[in-house]
């Protein structure tokens, strides 16, 4: 097993890509913290996995709130005594064209997608530094690399996540902590389910593989970066986008 006895926190993991990551990680031997604001879905996933004899813990988390993050970390340490892996997967969208984007929607996306990554990482690194070991995986996006119409706020956060990833890799690598990012392409989630068919068809058309990604495609990238197979990978942004815009 690639993550045997590792303790992993995965934010935004009650559904979508995060949920796929939880299921993959537990099957690889990890003890996984389902950290999500969606309490009903998080508890249901916890119940399902415990019934299968997996070691998981649901913790309600608002990544944008430092107190909530600190409480989550304390809860994890109380139960497991360590934190080996942090996957900063939580994120939201509040799309609009620049001329119509509200300050409230801009700020909310910044708070969750950018400040949330900062809050969670800052909260766990003291314990990783003490142990001389840690894997931090941040979630960027192709929107943060190439930009995307109607996503000023989202693209800004995902570009900033790349900058933070590279900075933290330089700061923390000497402490035994690997920091990397995954940049997913268009992926089948609850967000894409709401999109018009013509938009989905266009998205597929600009991908070399001519399909949208599955949550498992992204979760498997998380798994690789969380495993010791990636022990010499640091400060890297792994594109998992099917060959978009090549």
CATH second-level architecture: 3-Layer(aba) Sandwich
Weakly predicted, low-confidence segments:
none
CATH class bucket = Alpha Beta
Distance between the termini: 35 Å
CATH superfamily: NAD(P)-binding Rossmann-like Domain
What do the pLDDT scores average to?
96
Strand order of the largest sheet: 3-2-1-4-5-6-7
* Proportion of strand residues: 15-25%
Number of domains: 1
Q: Supply the number of helical segments.
A: 9
Helical content stands at 40-55%
Largest sheet: 7 strands, parallel
Shape descriptor reads globular
How large, in whole angstroms, is the Cα Rg? 17 Å
Provide keyphrases for this structure.
alpha/beta, Rossmann fold, 246 residues
Characterization of this structure:
The chain is α/β, with parallel strands linked by helices. The chain has a single domain, classed as Rossmann fold (3-Layer(aba) Sandwich), CATH 3.40.50. Helices cover 49% and strands 15% of the residues. The chain contains nine helices and seven strands. It has helices at residues 16-27, 39-51, 66-80, 103-131, 142-146, 152-172, 190-193, 197-205, 215-226; strands spanning 7-11, 31-36, 56-60, 85-88, 134-139, 177-184, 237-240. The longest helix is centred in the middle third of the chain and has 29 residues, at 103-131.
């Amino acid at each position: 097993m690639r993550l045997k006895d590792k303790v992993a926190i995965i934010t935004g993991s009650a559904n979508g890509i995060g949920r796929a990551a939880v299921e993959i990680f537990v099957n690889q031997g990890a003890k996984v913290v389902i950290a999500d604001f969606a309490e009903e879905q998080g508890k249901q996933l916890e119940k399902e996995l415990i019934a299968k004899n997996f070691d998981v813990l649901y913790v309600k988390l608002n990544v944008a709130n430092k107190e909530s993050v600190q409480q989550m970390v304390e809860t994890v340490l109380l139960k497991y005594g360590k934190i080996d892996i942090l996957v900063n997967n939580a994120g939201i969208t509040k799309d609009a064209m620049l001329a119509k984007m509200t300050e409230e929607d801009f700020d909310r996306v910044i708070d969750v997608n950018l400040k949330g990554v900062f809050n969670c990482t800052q909260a766990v690194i003291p314990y990783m530094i003490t142990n001389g070991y840690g894997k931090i995986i941040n979630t960027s996006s192709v929107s943060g690399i190439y930009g995307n119409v109607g996503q000023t706020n989202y693209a800004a956060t995902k570009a900033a996540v790349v900058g933070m990833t590279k900075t933290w890799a330089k700061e923390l690598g000497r402490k035994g902590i690997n920091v990397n990012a995954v940049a997913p392409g268009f992926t089948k989630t609850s967000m894409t389910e709401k999109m018009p068919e013509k938009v989905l068809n266009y998205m597929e058309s600009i991908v070399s593989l001519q399909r949208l990604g599955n949550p498992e495609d992204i979760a498997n990238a998380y798994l690789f970066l969380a495993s010791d197979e990636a022990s010499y990978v640091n400060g890297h942004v792994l594109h998992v986008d099917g060959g978009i815009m090549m």
